[in-house]
Design brief:
alpha+beta; 4-stranded antiparallel β-sheet
């Protein structure tokens, strides 16, 4: 249990580091506002410089804007709701500070959007995978949902807030920057879901056949990574139907299908992609 806990901390730390690197070293130097508190930070920093004021570092804005949200969430929902988010948000602010002392990418905006979006997406995916968030817009949306807008789903509120921030970024940096920022958001979402939900290289199949026992034995014999369950179900006319439920990797799908066809070409075969399997002894990976 303690090892899993430390692994979750390491995953969250790695995630906030990648997120900070993508935002601070790729998106921010090119003025690509991809939503979130960091997007507001880019806008505030740019306006501060335009008015001949000092630059406002992203780590400071992230900390300053998240603090009242945490206090409100603590008051509204209790410490249990914000406990993990506080840790990852503080870690993100720290990583932004560290990243601000690293070299900034100063090339074309397409490369900045591509690498910034992928790094930020990978970081967010790792944070979500360990059951936490970095606060910011997600936390604000949850608070708005509970206080006044409970008729609107939280994902829609997150989308509305992020869209508003991106539009503010367009007014600040221009249309071209915003188009590249949207590309960064697209890549960020794709990579984030891929990492947060797993690789999706596992398949689950349900097979019904009069030769179910023979199919099960052949799968266990030929497919090394398979996890197979065999069960019978009595139908309304008291006939017993034999079923197999099995899990295997994507690359072994053709072999499983061929086994079923060779033994019973009339068998019922249903296959679906799955993201993750949890069991005491994981024989599927």
């Amino acid at each position: 249990m303690r090892v899993k806990k430390y692994a979750a901390y390491a995953m969250a730390g790695t995630g906030t580091a990648l997120l900070a690197l993508g935002v601070q070293n790729f998106l921010e130097p090119s003025g690509l506002v991809a939503g979130g508190i960091s997007g507001l930070g880019m806008i505030a920093d740019d306006w501060s410089r335009r008015l001949d004021g000092p630059g406002i570092p992203l780590w400071l804005i992230n900390l300053a804007l998240n603090l009242p949200l945490f206090l409100l969430a603590w008051y509204q929902k209790g410490i249990g709701f914000v406990k993990k988010t506080i840790g990852t948000s503080l870690s993100f602010s720290l990583m932004l500070y560290v990243a601000s002392h690293l070299p900034m990418y100063a090339g074309d905006m397409f490369t900045a959007a591509a690498y910034g979006g992928m790094l930020a997406g990978a970081g967010l995916g790792l944070v979500l995978r360990c059951g936490a968030t970095t606060g910011g817009v997600d936390l604000a949306a949850a608070l708005l949902h509970d206080r006044k807008l409970n008729h609107i789903a939280i994902p829609r509120l997150v989308f509305a807030l992020d869209t508003t921030i991106i539009l503010l970024g367009m007014l600040t940096f221009g249309v071209t920057h915003t188009l590249y920022a949207i590309l960064a958001v697209f890549l960020m979402e794709k990579v984030m879901h891929r990492i947060a939900e797993g690789s999706g290289d596992l398949r689950a199949a349900v097979i019904r056949s009069e030769q179910a026992d023979a199919i099960r034995a052949e799968i266990l014999d030929k497919i090394d990574s398979s996890n197979v369950s065999f069960f019978q179900k009595e139908t309304w006319d008291t006939k017993k139907q034999e079923w197999i439920f099995c899990i295997f990797s994507q690359k072994e799908l053709p072999a499983v299908k061929q086994i079923v066809i060779n033994i019973d070409s009339h068998a019922f075969f249903l296959c679906a992609q799955i993201q993750e399997v949890m069991e005491e002894k994981d024989s599927c990976r």
